[in-house]
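Support request from a user on the community tier.

User writes: "When I paste my structure tokens into the form, the page sometimes reloads and wipes my input. The last time it worked, I copied everything first. Here is what I submitted, just in case something in the input itself triggers the reload:"
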């Protein structure tokens, strides 16, 4: 972005930016109001009640237990309480909005590493230190780090979120202006932290479609995830049509977003972190009805590869309830969570017996 003349605030280019700015302005005004009143009274009283030669002080200490004192105490406790509660409730409501990506969000994956941002689009396009997105669409970033803590910050969108190794965090926004905006890393992450910057390009829908098509040569993330799935031999145990669709491992159809019953009687929601853990540390949570013979894939899958595998598993969610169509090339690029929960592992025998992915 070109250097601009002095600007107090970054542009307000997302749907939430106006609300964040309004709250900020409110807090600045309240602070300014009280600071000015206090400063004024300090000076005013200092002058008014200053020591004058020959005049004896008429000052009488206030009676702490008088009714007047009590009323005063209540008033100056209640008013600040009310004001700070307004800030609190207002702030919380913005926070809740910012931390809950709408269900119709377009998903994009971000991997942070010292010192760059790597971005993968579901459709396959990849970029570094750049993020191309369409205007007026809800965008959800699912983010992880290859090394230390980072934080993905887009000031013009008034949003940021920590990016953690071994975990997935999300951040969402709806850009309302086309143009180029800064990305910063907002968590000190080593010597070149300040160089961990990038640019968001908000494009209109048509430009975005063109841009996206140009970069999708390697196939969608889910398709790439499917080849990884086959390469790593996941399909030897999962998705086997041996045993009516249940192989040595559970059928992964509809897994994403569903509740998984575990051997120890507890249950867990199958989100990104769960899938990641299932692959890198399979012993941590054993699915009910199965034994822990899944080998660990630690060290064999990069963070970006893991995101592709996850995208693949997510894409299987769409086929839940339908015959198993997860043959190569038919994976969907969208990642809506299944609406129905998946049946218990043992009951998932209704999957058609078509030869499926990875079943060599
Ligand atoms: C040797 C057989 C085997 C291989 C190979 C294997 N798995 Fe598994 N997998 C299992 C078994 C058995 C379970 C259930 C026990 C458990 O939770 O560890 C499981 C569980 C899972 C789960 C949790 C499923 C659920 O229903 O909650 C996921 C996700 C998963 N595997 C993904 C993969 C991926 C991705 C690969 C390839 C990188 C892979 N697996 C390779 C046997 C295997
Ligand atoms: Cu960083």
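"...and here is what came back when it finally went through:"
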């Amino acid at each position: 972005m070109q250097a601009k003349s002095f600007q107090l605030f970054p542009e307000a280019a997302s749907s939430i930016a106006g609300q964040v700015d309004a709250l900020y302005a409110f807090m600045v005004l309240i602070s300014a109001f009280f600071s000015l009143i206090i400063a004024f009274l300090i000076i005013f009283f200092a002058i008014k009640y200053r020591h004058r030669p020959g005049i004896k002080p008429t000052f009488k200490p206030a009676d702490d237990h008088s009714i007047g004192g009590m009323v005063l105490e209540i008033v100056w406790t209640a008013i600040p309480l009310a004001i700070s509660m307004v800030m609190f409730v207002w702030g919380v409501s913005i926070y809740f909005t910012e931390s809950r990506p709408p269900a119709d969000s377009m998903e994009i994956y971000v991997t942070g590493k010292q010192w760059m941002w790597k971005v993968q689009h579901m459709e396959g396009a990849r970029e570094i230190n750049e993020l191309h997105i369409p205007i007026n669409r809800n965008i959800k970033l699912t983010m992880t780090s290859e090394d230390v803590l980072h934080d993905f910050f887009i000031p013009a969108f008034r949003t940021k979120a920590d990016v953690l190794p071994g975990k997935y965090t999300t951040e969402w926004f709806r850009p309302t202006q086309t143009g180029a905006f800064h990305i910063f890393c907002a968590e000190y992450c080593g010597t070149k932290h300040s160089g961990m910057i990038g640019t968001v390009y908000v494009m209109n829908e048509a430009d975005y479609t063109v841009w996206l098509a140009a970069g999708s040569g390697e196939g969608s993330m889910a398709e790439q995830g499917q080849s990884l799935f086959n390469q790593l031999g996941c399909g030897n145990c999962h998705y086997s049509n041996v045993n009516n669709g249940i192989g040595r491992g559970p059928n992964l159809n509809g897994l994403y977003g569903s509740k998984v019953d575990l051997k120890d009687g507890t249950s867990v929601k199958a989100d990104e972190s769960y899938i990641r853990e299932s692959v890198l540390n399979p012993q941590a949570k054993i699915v009910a009805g199965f034994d822990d013979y899944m080998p660990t894939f630690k060290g064999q899958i990069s963070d970006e590869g893991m995101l592709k595998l996850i995208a693949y598993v997510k894409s299987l969610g769409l086929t839940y309830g339908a015959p198993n169509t997860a043959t190569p090339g038919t994976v969907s690029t969208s990642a809506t969570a299944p609406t129905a929960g998946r049946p218990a592992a043992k009951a998932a025998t209704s999957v058609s017996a078509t030869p499926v992915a990875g079943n060599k």
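Agent notes: The reload is a front-end session timeout and is unrelated to the input. The longest strand covers residues 106-113. Confidence is low (pLDDT under 50) at residues 319-360. Escalated to web team.
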